[in-house]
Amino acid sequence: MAWTTLQRRCLVALLLALTSHGIMAADVTVMVTDAGGKPVTDAVVAFYDSKTPAVNPNAAGKIIQKNKMFNPKVTVVQTGTSINFPNEDSVRHHVYSFSPAKKFELKLYSGVPTNPVPFDQAGVVTLGCNIHDSMVGYIYVVDTPFFAKTDDKGKAILKLNDGQYTYQAWLPGQNKPAAEQKITIEGVTEVKIPIP
Q1: Which is it for strands 102-109 and 93-99: parallel, antiparallel or unpaired?
Q2: 3-state secondary structure (DSSP) of residue 7
Q3: Torsions phi, psi for 87 (to 5 deg)
Q4: What are phi and psi for residue 162, nearest 5 degrees?
């Protein structure tokens, strides 16, 4: 049975819609290793295609303070995300950041702050506590929907369409990405990122 022109146009429109929404995206495994070839835990990888903005700008997140630590220690969010900082310790904390991407402070408090903190600029945000100097945490704010954090094997999985990207790999404690490079994803299932 021959397809009508209308049926062909509907099929093309459907395929374009599926592709533009990432439904046909494939899993790409990203492996991050250090100069010695060992896997890097908690590295953030972000892929930018210059046409897909961050999505879900009103997302919410949470970083808990417990046992005088930020949990998780490394958080990655998209621009526009608001984060709350509940304090589950029996002592009060004074959370702050002097980072250019977000300067703020939550003066000495216990329990849950009334308002979450919005993060609307991409970049690295280093967290500290004015009372407990050993407390350090990081928020990496990205302006793309394609991002992940590596596990204890240095591995992260992203869903990417074929196309041109620029990727960034960032390590906790650094002020800027440790690696940044252009890459073509066409049937690629694994990307290896060595950090010098």
Answers
A1: antiparallel
A2: helix
A3: -105, 110
A4: -60, 145
Q: Provide, rounded to the nearest whole percent, the portion of the chain with pLDDT above 90.
A: 78
Residue 187 reports pLDDT greater than 80: yes
How far apart are the C-alpha atoms of 179 and 166, rounded to whole Å? Answer: 10
What are the residues whose beta carbons fall under 8 Å from the beta carbon of 111, sequence distance 6 or more? 86, 87
Give 117-176 pLDDT, tens digit per residue. Answer: 999 999 999 999 999 999 999 999 999 999 999 999 999 999 999 999 999 999 999 989
Tokens 């073509």 correspond to what residue? 184
**30-59: per-residue pLDDT in tens?**
999 999 999 999 999 999 998 888 887 778
Query: 59 — alpha (psi -120 to 50), left (phi > 0) or beta?
Result: beta
3-state secondary structure of 10: helix
145 Cβ contact partners less than 8 Å away, ≥ 6 residues apart: 22, 52, 53, 54, 55, 56, 78
Pure H helices in the chain: 5-20
- What is the Cα 95 distance to its own chain's centre? 21
Residue spans of alpha helices (H) in 102-194: none
